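Chapter review. Work through the record for SRCR domain-containing protein before attempting the end-of-chapter questions.
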Amino acid sequence: MGQWGTICDDGWDDNDASEVCRQLGYGDFGIGWQSVQFDEGSGKSWLDDDSYSGSGQQIENSGSGGWEEHNCDQTDYAGVSCDTVRLVEGTFSHEGRVEIYHDGEWGTICSDKWDDNHASVICRQLGYSNIGTAIGTEMFREGSGPIWLDDISCSGLESNIYHCDGLEWENYNCGHNEDAGVSCGIVRLVGGTLPREGRFEIYHDGKWGTICDDYWDDKDASVACRHLGYGDNGIALHRAKFGAGSGPIWLDNVDCSGSEKHIDYCRSNLWGQENCEHNEDAGVSCNSVRLVGGKNWNEGRVEVYHNGEWGTICNYGWDDNDTSVICRQLGYEGSGIATSSAIYGEGTVKIWLDKVDCTGNEKNIDECGNTGWGNHNCEPREDVGVLCKRRQQSLV
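Structure tokens for SRCR domain-containing protein:
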């Protein structure tokens, strides 16, 4: 026939996907995806109502309705993932004991040298975000199959576990009491100017989707930031501040106490049960500092967020070490020029900090020495500012 074409997703399941993976030489395990999990196709739709029996026949000879006999369009085609890793025994789909498929069997990986870099590779390979946390068997119980790998070494940037160093099959010196586990970041921020802000999206049922901003507040945002690995301080933003999403709206009426580790531990409506539109998509800022009054994005009066309010910093002792911490916290290069005496205008908010004393190595301004929140003896005309150097590039 001389043309490439797609397969409709009616009846498409893991059995069909496994046969495709087998034909492609990727092993015997495949995951069937439906409804344009990947980009839309552009050729003909060749097959529909596919039903593979598992008897070893080619996919084109399985129980379909015949060539070009279909009732679907290019938004309904089948997809395949031939991943040979999976997560087992987790409470949620994004966490569990890591198992890898090799030589016809599922087996485990020993946790020697296992860290967040390894976990991030596994999560990326499984289609989650680039954030992974390494966990041992204390959460996910021991496996019972072969132990396939031990002492592997990942930088954290690899696209899959097979690109890591030290893959020597069945060469190990551990037992199943050392099986490696992971918890994957199933949340991300989209559309922000800085890495720590954006439309909050969550991965569920094979798709990224948004959260409605009904009842969305700083407690919810703080849980979101903690889930993302950005600390415990989050600011809730509403009305699609970072643009409207286009996928499903997964959650509505989210109600967190603020102490939860993950956003999916909070109370909410059931998945997909919502009464809002994407113009109500919830946003998050995980920065507790901002620059105000500057002509450019990298300069301005420094304001810090504390106890539900924005406030300024007094200029007593303010220097380039303090400035470097602010710039790094905002996602810039980590160096800058200190300004004082309200160069960028006087603030109209509280004065939160005075006599700030940073070494320059701190990650956040609240790790630096100071007189305590709200304790000061200065006026708004002494508000500090910064001019940060070029913006840091995000690796995510």
